[in-house]
Amino acid sequence: MGQKVKPIGLRLGINRTWDSRWFADKNYSDLLHKDLKVRKFLMEKLKAAAVSKVVIERPAGRARVSIYSGRPGLIIGKKGQDIEKLKDELSKTLGMEVSLNIMEIRKPEIDAKIEEETDPIELLVENNVIISHKGTEPHLTIPKALNEENIVAIGDGALSKNASFTKITIPNTIELIGRGAFAECSALETIIISDNVRYIGKAPFAACKSLNSIQVSPQNSEFRDINGILFDKQISTLIQYPANAPTSYQVPKSVTTINEAAFAECSKLISVIFPDTLEKIEKAAFLGCSSLEEIDLPKSLKVISQGAFVGCSNLKKITIPKDVTVIEDGAFAHCSNLKSVEFRGPPPLAGNGVFTNSSPTVYVTKNKGWTDSYLNLKTVELGE
Description:
Blueprint: E1 20-21, H1 28-45, E2 51-57, E3 63-69, H2 72-76, H3 81-94, E4 98-104, H4 112-117, E5 123-126, E6 129-133, E7 139-141, E8 145-146, E9 149-150, E10 153-154, E11 167-169, E12 176-177, E13 190-193, E14 199-200, E15 213-216, E16 223-226, E17 229-232, E18 237-240, E19 248-250, E20 257-258, E21 271-273, E22 280-281, E23 294-296, E24 303-304, E25 317-320, E26 326-327, E27 340-343, E28 349-350, E29 361-365, E30 373-374, E31 377-382
Parallel strand pairs: 1-2, 3-4, 6-10, 7-11, 10-12, 11-13, 12-14, 13-15, 18-20, 19-21, 20-22, 22-24, 23-25, 24-26, 25-27, 26-28, 27-29, 29-31
Antiparallel strand pairs: 2-3, 5-6, 8-9, 16-17, 17-18, 30-31
């Protein structure tokens, strides 16, 4: 009564043997310490491989190491290259020839050791590029390397549509962030971009509805942030405006391009003041900005791209400057409250469905080449 024994002891019957199996005489302590060192090394090095246990045997002057893993492929590597590297490292530590066995655990989800210690970060990496992620951790710190290979890029949409992330830190090994890499991460509040990022694809943080700020290392040579808003280094392109940034914003005077999906799903945005340097508003730049009521497009503007203001359901009035030459497909589609569109110049080249599910009155300047209708909407002439 009251006596305690270890779960793997005799009281429950012999259900497993020792994890170190060898005979020693005077050098027992040396061999034991080497085993402990090897286990610690393997558990740290192979953390992502879901290792449950390491068994070390020493038959006839050599060592046999068996690693029980839920993800044996991460240990073996491409064409078994990682196995050979690991054998060499173990041989140096143990001071003898080593044979290595990788034993697959068929049901890792019922292994208590794996469930307790496996890192929740589940990144799928191919050719040094992150292509997907299945973890549920709120703060993702992307590792610099996985299986001794540096991670240099985040692929298109690789970390998108994750509802768990609140903060993401990018290491200085990352050089490229793909298109929509973090799009629709609904809980993401902060992103930190490191020194060496050289390329960021279109719409990198589009529709991240909780995003407060994007922070860029001052040492980065290609990008910068101003009050948590992402720009290129020259401040000529506004790349991303966080959805939870202020509801009114004045774009810096040097900006010539509003990036694709730069303001997408900024549902709290009420007003934007554009500089007289702006030339192009890219695809879906203001998609779903449902609180935006009125915008004053600058005289310098030339191109309004596909779906630039689609779904701006509170937009009531817009004036198109005289130098706008192209309005692409669906630029003002689903702007259900749009009542007035005034054109200051000749008819721009227009794509399909520019005003789909919108029915504004079109006001045009007299003697500028207009006809009685434009895109199936009746035109009303104003003075010259």
